[in-house]
DNA-binding NarL/FixJ family response regulator (Paeniglutamicibacter kerguelensis), 223 residues
Amino acid sequence: MNSVAGDEGIAVSRIVVIDDHATFADLLSGALNREVDLRCIGTANTLEAGVALCIKDEPDLVVIDYRLPDGDGLQGAERILRALPSMRIVMLTGDPTSQAMQRAASLGVCGFLPKDGALSILLDVLRTVRQGEFIVGPALISELLKPRQLEVSMNPGLTARELEVLQLMSQGFDVTANARTLAISAHTCRGYVKSILSKLDAHSQLEAVATANRLGLVGAVGQ
């Protein structure tokens, strides 16, 4: 990573914003630059320009819109990660679909958030997201788990505690919060998550939740 030290030695994450709405990109850039630990080092309004900027400047994080005039953000994320495998990418969308979220998770995108969501949530995600994680906004989890006519299968060997962890995962909570809810250690909770991913043949928590929904193992949020 290319984080630099800011005032008083604070680590500053360098961020590129890729969005076809210039006003939105400028507003987000300004908001990032008002934070002591975040800095926007450039914006781009097309997929091609965004990919080129990321490869040239190698930022720590990329915020990319799902819909761009010359392609979609998933195509951009795939190209960026092919060139810079350790890049952390957060995708914004105003029109989420479960297919897009699942593909984003499989590509290695770190976060998938609603474009009209709170700025504070985006800033928190940018500060905490790690390579290999997949953070989804709660509103998008609800969209993912809307009832669909999907084939229901039997429980693929999940224990009662694993089902509890899975249900909490489906509500968008992180490992620390889930561990606190279940009165177990974060280390133990991570072990349950690892087991769940293995049993559901999933590569991320989002994939596990999507598979569990298809199998009828979890209900829609709010039920």
User: Anything to note?
Assistant: DSSP finds ten helices and nine strands in the chain. Residues 147-154 have pLDDT under 50 and may be disordered. The longest helix spans residues 186-199. Residues 50 and 61 are 12 Å apart (CA to CA).
